[in-house]
Amino acid sequence: MLLTKIRILLLFICLSSVSRSLHAAIGDQNSLFLACGSQNGGTDEDERKWESDTKYLVSGDKSVTTQPQSHDPSVPSVVPYINARFFHSESSYNLPVKNQSAHILLRLHFYPTTYPNLNVSNSYISVSAGKVTLLNNFSAFITAQAWSQNYIIKEYLLAPMDSPTLEIKIKPFGNSSLAFINGIEMITSPDLFYGPDPVMAGFNTDEEASDNGDNGVVSQQTISVKENNMELMYRVNVGGQYIPPKNDSGGLMRSWYEDTPYLYGGSAVGIAMSNNMTINYDALPSYVAPISVYESCRSMGFESNVNVNYNLTWVFNVDANFTYLVRFHWCDFIVDSTKINSLVFNVYINGQIAESQVDLVAMQHGKMAIPLVKDYVTHVDDKNGDDQLWIAVHPSGDNAALANAIVNGLEIFKINGGNTSLAGQNPTMSDLMKKYQDEQSKEEEAPRAFSDKDKSHSTTVIGTAAAGGVAAFGVAAVLVIVALKRKRRTMGAESCTTSWLPIYGSSKSHSSGTKSASGRSAGGGSTTISSDAASNCRYFSLAEIKQATKNFDESYVIGVGGFGKVYKGVIDGDTKVAIKRSNPSSQQGVNEFQTEIEMLSKLRHRHLVSLIGFCEENNEMVLVYDHMAHGTLREHLYKGNKTILSWKQRLEICIGAARGLHYLHTGAKYTIIHRDVKSTNILLNDKWVAKVSDFGLSKTGPNMNQGHVTTVVKGSFGYLDPEYFRRQQLTEKSDVYSYGVVLFEVLCARPALNPNLPKEQVSLADWALVCQRKGHLEDIIDPHLKGKINPECLKKFAETAEKCLADSGIDRPSMGDVLWNLEYALQLQENPDSVLSPSEATNQVDHDNADQNSLIAMHRSTLSLESENAYGNTDDVFSQIVNPTGR
After folding, report:
1. Among 415, 443, 469, where does a domain finish?
2. Helices (DSSP H) in 441-582: which residue ranges?
3. Residues 840 and 818 in one domain
């Protein structure tokens, strides 16, 4: 009996020791989450428990606690942004530090929205932590406005200190009488930089080395960073999806973002790849990065002759006159070899070589799927106006089995380098952004003036880019995109307080005030699905949806948008479907959910995505569509470039999309304006048939007698009709403008907006028009298409796209005209000798009837125009006889 007790005691001691070691490693022994201005704290969306900041506030007698007048649904969590503490003089917090030998991960949260009787636009803040200045003259309002962020998170890694408390001082800067903060996180961090000191990027030339007596040997200068304080600038899961804080490793609650906004090089952006091997951390501590980072990568691809001619490059905006640490995360799972020299490449930072002959197989000691990290440092100064970090990899080694290079993850930290300040300047708006914000300030703001639902976070790229410490410069590579997206401040804006309402319960009752399956009111009639719409599509139970997606397994995720995640799934045994699940924290989904069902349940067309059914149960809103095997059009142009589309394929896809849009404008009972036409909303099925998707923003009406619908501006910047933007008057010609951008996107294989290019080239629409009018369009088309387009076909295609982008809607063609011109261009490409020119064709018809429709009727015997009306009936010339001139 005594022996048994001793064994139990020893086991308890052993387990306690392991537990203490684990907690010391992951930082659980000293974590504070303070909801500033809150009396009771609360729990956030990542299940962190926040407490009131009151007992840690040392000198805050003159502080004021308040709540925002409205809460924007794009803010990721109610806590800590539902409360704020404002200061009119210097105040401080004393935070207990239990482990003085450990690093501290510190995050500061700011939500610069409208507060009662407090003007955050006049707030300039200084913050220090111990002896280091974190922020100086910092305007959360200007930063959020410049980066089009609703909230800002600043993240710091503080060196070990010799005090049992960390003093956080916050005060108004200069003449400002106002400072504020919404939340403070403090997490004890393990030593993330436990390895050797990182190497400074760059090396001496032979001449410089000789002058220094080095006989041409590369000089590798190292920088000690372990005792320095740092600010996180970027944390990127290269080639992978967004990783939320709750999925981070080591209890550090970090956010990892997609790399697509920072990629440079048009179509030369490599291939995003995922791993099916078991990742083994080996000697690398698991807290360095979550395993998801090492399960995906971006590779240059498997065409050696192509890879040797370009660099895989990312561009990040940073503060000048600081030193930066760049951490690479690598895990080789793509080279089926354990031989050294199988995968060798060079690493470049700001044009200087950081390391040559990086051999991942050698670094992994002949093993595969072993995570690795390597740190480099560089200095960015403003001597040449430099405020960017260019990071690139390029194949190296003539004997390598494959000319290739990969990256799995990137982290960029600003280092104080012995200085007492990490503070940078407030960001400034670009001229392009100022222009649009000046225009928008004259118009009525909406809760969500623009939609950006691209997989890459929009939500994921934009809305979340500030979270996890990317902060003011967290979305630098998408400055123009997000800055023009809209002033997301809610100053004087319409309050966005839509609640999470059930739309339709299993009782399938649609009357006002009926109860859903959950027993709650089904929206009081204001947000219910009509019985007509419900009868035209299938209702799924939540159990069926979970079975189809393996209980929403993350491995089934095939996309992320503003509405929520999209999962692949299987129903009825073998039917593949795409299942779009709304994110409950994005309350904007209610209206989009209803609009999508109301629209698509009544529309049937070969070139519109098919809605199979929906589910509303237990606060879930789910839409079920046909599975589109080849994904979005954009994926096959430049975003990953899965398949190089031939010019004929591209023309046929454009024609299909035009047919779908033409049907919306003229073929349905009422005019339907899509309002979010872009390459990510054109999907491709297994036969490469194009289908227009995503009708969450669509508008319809019984008539268009006024020629327009007056409505708040919504859409995606880069595709947005400038006339609609200025006047808030929506017409079907707004879709025509957006489609014109898509046409140039297809031709040039580049994004609608690319902020990494010179200012005059940022907007594809503007730049393509300049090149077209100067006769230089061939200089900017996709290199894969050079010499493969019939000149007359290219001329007709470019003229069509140019007309779509006319400044005034009245000068743009109808979608029927666009469709005819594209089909004519296809004929010019396939059989140019047998196609009559428009002038020749016109001479053969009566001049009184020589309009567009007569031409189409005479010269379309070989053109297949498969349109279906709302009831599924096929009419080969439908798009030409139903209101061909548009409305």
Report:
1. 415
2. 458, 479-485, 531-535, 542-548
3. yes
Domain-located, residue 130 = yes
- Residue-by-residue DSSP string for 487-510: ----TTPPP----------TT---
Q: Is the pLDDT of residue 636 over 80?
A: yes
Do 283 and 209 belong to one domain?
Answer: yes
Catalytic residues: 676
Whichever domain contains 845, its CATH number is 1.10.510.10
Residue matched to tokens 């993850």: 409
pLDDT at 849: 38
**Structural tokens at position 754:** 């690319």
pLDDT digit string, tens, across residues 327-374: 999 998 876 556 677 789 999 999 889 999 999 888 877 778 899 999
For residues 230-239, average pLDDT:
95
* Cα–Cα dist 416/634, whole Å: 41
CB half-sphere exposure, 512, CA atoms < 13 A: 3
Among 415, 436, 471, the domain boundary falls at 415
Does residue 776 fall inside a structural domain?
yes
Statement to judge: residues 361 and 406 lie in one domain = yes
Chain centroid to Cα 547, Å, comes to: 29
Could you tell me the pLDDT band of residue 9, with boundaries at 50, 70 and 90?
A: very low
Burial of residue 887 (CB within 10 Å: 0-12, 13-18, 19+) is: middle
Spatial separation of the C-alpha atoms in residues 852 and 813, rounded to whole Å:
11
Cα separation, 18 vs 12, whole angstroms: 10
> For the whole prediction, is pTM greater than 0.70?
no
How does strand 620-626 pair with strand 611-617? antiparallel
Same domain, 187 and 203: no
User: What are the φ and ψ backbone dihedral angles of 679, each rounded to 5 degrees?
Assistant: -70, -25
719 with 484: CB under 8 angstroms? no
Q: Mean pLDDT check: name the lowest of 435-439, 557-561, 730-734, 854-858.
A: 854-858
Instruction: Examine residue 273 and state whether it is found in any structural domain, yes or no.
Output: yes
The rounded distance, in Å, linking the Cα atoms of 361 and 849 is 72
478: nearest Cα among 468, 492, 464? 464
* Number of neighbouring beta carbons within 10 Å of residue 770: 15
**379 and 241, same structural domain?**
yes
Return the biggest CA–CA distance within the chain: 112
pLDDT at position 525 = 31
pLDDT tens digits, 267-296: 578 888 888 788 889 889 999 999 999 999
Closest CA to 487 of 446, 428, 457, 455: 446
**Strand 257-258 relative to strand 230-237, pairing:** parallel
pLDDT value for 397:
66
Contact 714, 450 (CB under 8 A): yes
pLDDT at 337: 57
Of the candidates 294, 272, 289, 288, the one whose C-alpha atom is nearest the C-alpha of residue 368 is 294
Q: Report the CATH number that the domain containing residue 537 is assigned in CATH.
A: 3.30.200.20
Q: Give the confidence band of 61 by pLDDT, cuts at 50, 70, 90.
A: low
For residue 756, give both structure tokens: 């990494």
Give me the number of domains the chain comprises: 4
Lowest mean pLDDT among 202-216, 486-500, 830-844: 486-500
pLDDT at position 710 over 60: no
* CATH number of residue 121's parent domain: 2.60.120.430
Best CA proximity match to 825, nearest among 661, 652, 677: 652
* C-alpha distances in Å from residue 170, one per residue of 94, 126, 184: 12, 6, 12
3-class SS at 523? helix
Q: How confident is the model at residue 530 (pLDDT cuts 50, 70, 90)?
A: low
**pLDDT at residue 165 is higher than 90:** yes
Residue 238 lies in domain: 199-225+230-415
Same domain, 248 and 299: yes
Looking at the structure, do residues 60 and 122 belong to the same domain, yes or no? yes
Which burial class, exposed, middle or buried, applies to 543 when counting CB atoms under 10 A from its CB (0-12, 13-18, 19+)? exposed
* Mean pLDDT, residues 404-432: 83
| In a domain? residue 635 | no
Query: Are residues 247 and 383 both part of a single domain?
Result: yes
